[in-house]
Amino acid sequence: MCEPYLKPMDSSNSVPTNHRLLIKLRRGAIKAYVNTHAWDKAIEMGRLLNESLRYHYGPFSPILGTYLMGIGNALLELRRLQEAEKYLTEAKNVLEVTHGPKHALMLEVQEMFVLLEILKT
């Protein structure tokens, strides 16, 4: 029943692309995909959620920053290094504004960048 809403929306769908209920549905789907280790599906869902979060909360939201960090981390685990670097850079930019440079989340992002550099070699 939820499957049609777990992919990019088209104009023929009755639910608007950035509807708040879709955000809840997609968050739940991400959790389910992560718990079942379906990383590719979790990443795709995170990308869809990313667009909705930007729409509702703006470019500098703590929620957006943590989701970008999560997508980057999942991409890092899958060794998709270029994509991971893109998302981690976005997360760093958002979290620096929302949490400050010395926050624990910023330290986690920095650790992910160190791991990224190790994996690149």
UniProtKB/TrEMBL annotation:
Originating species: Strongylocentrotus purpuratus (Purple sea urchin)
Name of the protein described by the UniProt record: Uncharacterized protein
